[in-house]
Amino acid sequence: MDPEYDLHYILNHLGEERERHRGAVAPPVYQTSNFCFDDVPAMRLALADELKSSFYTRGNNPTVETLRRKLAALEGAEDALAFSSGSGAVSAAVIAFVSQGDHVVCVNRPYSWTRVLLRDMLPRFGVSTTFVDGTDSRNFADAITEKTRMIVVESPNSMTFEQQDLRAVADLAKAHGLITLCDNSWASPLHQSPIACGIDLVVHSATKYLNGHSDVVAGAVCGGHQLIQQIFRGPFMTLGAVLSPHDAWLMIRGLRTLEVRMARIAQTTAEVAAFLAGHPKIRQLLMPGAPGDPQAELGARQLKGQSGLLSIRVAADDLAAVDRFCASLECFLLACSWGSYESLAFPVACLMKEESYRSTANPLPYDLIRLSIGLEPASALIADLESSLAQL
Ligand SMILES: *Cc1c(COP(=O)(O)O)cnc(C)c1O
């Protein structure tokens, strides 16, 4: 079949089984905590495969299942689990596979709460992590010990956009019998396919592009049946960070437009980036494929398209100048999330205090501002940036 129609089919029909729902075009919200049965054998049968049947909504629910089937298909995975946050998804996917004494290798500068999980929380349970510069695949190989169980990557990462060679990481992990996990939130399933590169598990903050409407916090893990079953039986059911049926329904609605949103956002981002790249008040433009990107070749090989998340370093002499730039923005809202219909600006300066912002201990420079490009016209966003840059 036409591959474009395949994508349309996944987003708009797959898993909806309208004949089971009185022909409802939009799926019903099964707002129920549990399901009843005629007799004990029927209960036993449902319990035997809790991941597929409807027994208790912490395990599975028909509305959530429709979403899970779409998420799995989008990533080319056998199955998927939906979570009540991206962090819940990352945590469950890691915790399912590590035990006391085990070791994880993770790329430098992962999403902040992924770092907290690996650097601060898991050591309390005897699991250690080595963070490596992932721009050179040999660093992963050098960090592997006989205790290593997992490699965690995020390509590109979501503040400074360093990429990792997913195929090289997957090959290395296979040679050592390790599980690989990739946070694919930046690219969305449309613009990068980690599983096709040999990665075992793909996680998403579905709060970002997958939902795309800034009204749901959600997460996803996609992977093979066996690994998903292991996550389900372990941390999914015990930690219980499940997506509610209503939020799953909103996510299904958000997914209807994923393809058109990503196409529009990529187009607008290219126009905004071209404006920023040549501007005298921009110290640096950070995004895959920016002028002078040392990873341009990897990006061209690995990414199928751009997303709308990029960072700029503005020519601000101090925090007050960053404040002036941000206060002057009108189209861009000041907010921390990204991947949605509205354009956002997130200044790293909001994490810093006046006394310490120039300290070399700060992992990111004070003049870094992350921009998430939304669905507004490029001309409006460029005019907004232009007049705000003039405040510097
Ligand atoms: C936001 C984000 C997360 C966490 O997702 P939540 O839905 O906020 O819990 C994980 N990874 C990346 C790259 C993110 O941007």
Describe the structure using short key phrases.
single chain; 392 residues; alpha/beta; Aspartate Aminotransferase, domain 2; Aspartate Aminotransferase, domain 1; 7-stranded mixed beta sheet; 5-stranded mixed beta sheet; 14 helices; 38% helix; 15% strand
Task: Please explain how this structure is put together.
This protein has 392 residues and is an alpha/beta fold. It has 2 domains: 3-255, Aspartate Aminotransferase, domain 2, CATH 3.40.640.10; 258-389, Aspartate Aminotransferase, domain 1. The protein is built from 14 helices and 12 strands. It has a 7-stranded mixed sheet with strand order 1-7-6-5-4-2-3, sandwiched between helices. Helix 4 crosses helix 9. The chain is globular and about 70 Å long. The protein binds pyridoxal-5'-phosphate. Pyridoxal-5'-phosphate binds at residues 85-87, 111, 154, 158, 183, 185, 205, 207-208, 217, 219.
Show the helix and strand layout:
Elements: H1 3-12, H2 40-48, H3 62-75, E1 79-83, H4 86-95, E2 103-107, H5 112-121, E3 128-132, H6 138-143, E4 148-154, H7 166-176, E5 179-183, H8 188-191, E6 201-205, E7 219-223, H9 225-239, H10 245-255, H11 258-277, E8 282-286, H12 296-302, E9 309-314, H13 319-328, E10 333-334, E11 344-347, E12 368-372, H14 378-389
Parallel strand pairs: 2-3, 2-4, 4-5, 5-6, 10-11
Antiparallel strand pairs: 1-7, 6-7, 8-9, 9-12, 11-12
